[in-house]
Amino acid sequence: MFLESIKRLFGSTTTSSDITPGEPSGVDPLHLAACTLLLEVAHADGEFSSQERAHLENALARHFALSPETGQRLLELAEAERRAAVDQYRYTSVLNAGYDVGQKMVLAEVMWGLVLADGTIAEHESYMTRKIANLLDLEPGYLATAKRAAAESAARSEER
């Protein structure tokens, strides 16, 4: 039991760095890293609401051009990653290596969209979003812009 805990701590389980494009999982490591972080934000308040799930599924389809089946598989793998993770650095380092500032901004906007999806901004969700943005080397001004864009998008969605 103790040995198993140590192995999990040091990443002996399958992680985003172990999954490469073209493997049987069929999951891009950038997609897996981003989805894992998005799930971390969604679960930060202790609840993953149906509104948050819908927002996340739409974001995966829109930004990653995934079929519903591939998106579901990605969510399952990312959820397993999230549960096994001891920190977010493993995932942000994958994204820092593979994303430019514009892609990180889009991710930050999706994170804020998740936070706003259920109509309340929980302190833990806000904290987790800021923490991840910091690990992605996004300046506070970029994060504020992403939050404003997510709020405007949410308002447009409510008007429809």
Structure characteristics:
71% helix, mainly alpha, TerB-like, 0% strand, globular, 8 helices, 160 residues, disordered N terminus
CATH topology: TerB-like
- Give the tally of β-strands: 0
Structural class: mainly alpha
How far is the N terminus from the C terminus?
A: 53 Å
Helix/strand layout:
Elements: H1 2-9, H2 29-42, H3 50-64, H4 68-84, H5 89-98, H6 101-117, H7 123-135, H8 140-159
Provide structural commentary.
There is one protein chain. This protein is an all-alpha fold and 160 residues long. 71% of the residues lie in helices and 0% in strands. It has helices spanning 2-9, 29-42, 50-64, 68-84, 89-98, 101-117, 123-135, 140-159. The longest helix has 20 residues, at 140-159. The termini are far apart.
